[in-house]
Amino acid sequence: MHIQANYCLRHHNTFHVPAHARYFIEIDKQSDIRALRSDPILAALPWYVIGDGSNLLLTHDLEGVVVRNKFRQLRIMKEDDTTLWISVGGGMEWDELVHWSVKHGLWGLENLAAIPGTVGAAPVQNIGAYGAEVQDAITRIQALDLFTGERHEFRNADCHFGYRTSIFKTELKGQFILHRITFRLRKLAHGHANLMYEPLREALASIPEHDLTPQHVYDAVARLRATRLPDPAKEGNAGSFFQNPVVDADYFHTLQQKWPDIPHHQLVTGEYKLSAAWLIEQCGWKGKCLPKTDACVSKKHALVLVNRGQATGEQILELAQQIQTDVMHTFGIHLEPEVIIL
Length: 342
Ligand SMILES: Cc1cc2nc3c(=O)[nH]c(=O)nc-3n(C[C@H](O)[C@H](O)[C@H](O)COP(=O)(O)OP(=O)(O)OC[C@H]3O[C@@H](n4cnc5c(N)ncnc54)[C@H](O)[C@@H]3O)c2cc1C
Hints:
Layout: E1 3-8, E2 20-27, H1 30-37, H2 40-44, E3 47-50, E4 56-57, E5 62-69, E6 74-79, E7 83-89, H3 94-103, E8 106-107, E9 128-129, E10 132-133, E11 138-145, E12 151-155, E13 176-187, H4 198-203, H5 214-228, E14 236-240, E15 246-247, H6 249-258, E16 264-266, E17 272-274, H7 276-282, E18 295-297, E19 304-307, H8 313-331, E20 340-341
Parallel strand pairs: 2-5, 3-5, 4-20
Antiparallel strand pairs: 1-2, 6-7, 7-13, 8-13, 9-10, 11-12, 11-13, 14-19, 15-17, 16-17, 18-19
């Protein structure tokens, strides 16, 4: 275990903003936490867990201990005729895991192709895309208590998964580092493609449904994503900055009278999920920047805020706040950030 002081996090966040951590430590086993906590200086500071920083906006230096899980092992736990259970270290890259699963002809993760970040962060906001959420494949999570180093097991139902949320983002925020995650995946002949999301169905329309493999779905999702989202390596960003808002039916119908084209999706609860990107675009923000800064809204996708070079975390936050104000004035809707702001 190597403790690095006054460590620059520019390469540990996909906005590429230059915040520093007082201490930066990568851990890979349970006993590391106990060892670190026995140091009175480290124990007295606040602790932060990060993965690849692809869902983070750092607005200032972190005067504490930044911990990263680098435990990357993938182990097959159990297998029967239809299903395989694997346990994966939280430090593995998410897309490396998805790639592994489709290469082995396993169904379950393919719609979540090409999402940046680590396996350990995926359950925190219950990553989702193209009609799937990671909660659908998770059976168990082994987490380490950040204060005591003790190991805790969470079953799927304990995690309180919801739209871009889980217990690790709410009630237990900041208390655990997710160490290993167990996934249940279907074998090739015993699963099928999830084509609920229309653009994906259209992209795969040329292949008969019974011939589809997880690899076909992976490739189609990766292609769709590349055309829609800016690449953080070229233009710093953290994907969707805000969540899509949900409004009740009465309010939706009021909005629809004024904006008949408002994109919407009715939920089983009777509420309506709206497109945050559309709301932002209507307010004229797509492609625009905070004056005299590199903090901008992507030209490709209005829900993605980008750093065109030298933007600071504070400037990106100010841009986000101006967008929230405009959307509130125009539509009476509060946009909730999806990105974790530190
Ligand atoms: C281009 C782009 C596209 C994206 N597309 C999507 C998408 O389609 N769907 C989607 O859901 N997200 C998307 N995201 C957001 C992001 O990829 C995910 O939220 C991802 O899971 C973050 O992983 P990370 O390792 O970078 O976590 P970080 O950003 O480092 O951390 C995010 C949060 O998780 C916590 N955390 C991280 N690791 C652990 C751990 N081991 N234990 C406990 N807590 C931890 C952190 O404390 C923080 O609160 C996108 C991001 C980018 C840049």
